[in-house]
Amino acid sequence: MPEHEGIKDTLESIVIALILAFVFRAFIVEAFVIPTGSMAPTLYGAHGTIVCQDCGVEFAYGVKDLADKRKVVQVLASSRAVCPNCNHVNTNLRVSDERRNREKGDRILVLKWPFDIGGRSLGPARWDVIVFKDPADGVTNFIKRLAGLPNEVLMIVDGDVYTVTTEKLSADAREQLDRIRHEKYEQRAKIRHGGQLTRVPRKILDELDEKMTIVRKTPAAQQALWSRVYDHDYPPQKLDRNQPRWASARGDSSGWDASNRRVRFEDRGTRPDYIELAGKRILAVRAYNIHGGDVPTVSDVRVRFVWTPQNGEGALRIRLEKSRRTFWATVRMDGLVTLTESTDVPGSTALAMAFKQLAPFAQGKSVEISFENLDYRLALKVGGEEVLTSSGDRESPAYYGPDLKSLRRMARKTPAPPRIYGEGGAFELSHLVVERDEYYYHDPKPQALAMRWAPQRGWASPESPILLREHEYFMLGDNTAASKDSRLWDQVGPHLVNRGEAFQLGTVPRDQLVGKAFFVYWPSGHRISWLPSIGTWNWSIIPDVGRMRWIR
Asked: 21: how many CB neighbours lie within 10 A of its CB?
């Protein structure tokens, strides 16, 4: 009898464990595999990894998963991977479709129960990385970053996201935008035929220009969205014409020496001297994307380095440019730090934006410095602490913020590259890095959406702001040029067709959200080079523990 009881207890324990496992998976946490590179480099799909032949930077590039029937990035024998750091065109691709010797996508954990409970603190939050059901089929799990929330109007202008809550709009604006949304439903349901969507009336666009505000990323999300433009710890060895370098316009007569990883400056008693990032345009490109179309320039930039003064004199100035405006961050040895705007060289008449007196800097003591122009906000950090920012107050004479009406009409201008000036004294810069922010766009030359009546630049473009209703969300991929996200959705799956007008193209309904991605528990692994490949196995079976990380 005791033996039978023991067997019974064991079986009951196994059944209970299985039930708990299914309950845990269904309601608490579920594991997913990233299929594509639409969120790279935050999250990798099937990809290859390469060490640049020139500068030595390691980077990833996308390949096609043969089990995935969708049209995604594909590496061919003739493909080349362009280094995101030094622009070198690499030829030693180690991963291809033919050899099946690729690395799998990141495996992630998704937290589900907070969405089930809901509420302001536990529900979906802007800039979270979210898993949801593909609106085109209702089966495939997609993963994107949440950019738009219910009850607001959203628009993407010059790579940035702008929103306004519907309660702040006039009744006429709400009515007109909802009428165009209804017309979009009639067009896709083939109730209405012919022509494109009615254009948003000029007076409504004028109202949106006045009331919409730029949506800045959370600090955690922003840290994931900075992309390296050039890291001077990995300089190119060949230094071809199209490769980046810190260079002075004065050549050999300059007080700057940027030929080594440690950049040195010594004042020679002449006019202010500077170096600038030459040989590389700051573009919205991803090394992950082997192929690409027209790419816009990016002016949201961060310059950071470690500053080591060599004596007790002089000043350091960093120059950034955006929308025909030029901004300066100045750090003086006596501890005075300033933000100014000027279109001329330092010392000319300038608009003072902010200043602060810090403790004097000590000779020979290193300190971290960074200056960023991000989402129409300037920020200077010293020693990791944000010490100065620009004003967002429209009444302030030093106001810095977007003007949507001007942005719509202004011809794009390629900004001047970042510059660093030295005045007086001597100092060294080390770990000098330039980074850019994410820039949301897609190549507008081909028709973005399959429907002829749809806007060429997609939903939420400047000519087609999207009205999000009570249950609707708007999603964007971090790898914007290779992401078919809310901007470009043009199909309705069978699970949504019967909802009729309750579903809007370009949105994700609330009940289609699965959960928030929070941890990469198994990044693509290391290969065991001495083991032969068998079938579809690539032997990347040792997890890269160093890349296990929280998802921001």
From this structure: 10
